[in-house]
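Hi, here's the filled form for the chain we discussed.

Project: internal
Contact: R.S.
Residues: 91
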Amino acid sequence: MVSGSAVLSWDAPAYRVNGDGLPDGHISHYVVLWGQDPEQLSNSTEVTCQDCQDMEYTVEDLSEGKWYFSVKTVDSEGRESARAEPASKTI
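And the returned structure, exactly as it came back:
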């Protein structure tokens, strides 16, 4: 069986879902989601950060097939954003 990885990278959002600005320092962490069904991303992990601006995370031990990935932002008050549009990679 083939095993692979995917390197995800993203920039911090500048605005909240409602259009209000999201100042530096208001992001607590990110939630990275992945799976083989873009509608049901069944795996997730929290990614902590210092400045939470330019982010990168590697998902490892992916089996052969097409994988989808998304990210959600969690602010310092625990509010989660909607997840980003999924990206995909074939292993």
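Let me know if anything looks off before we file it.
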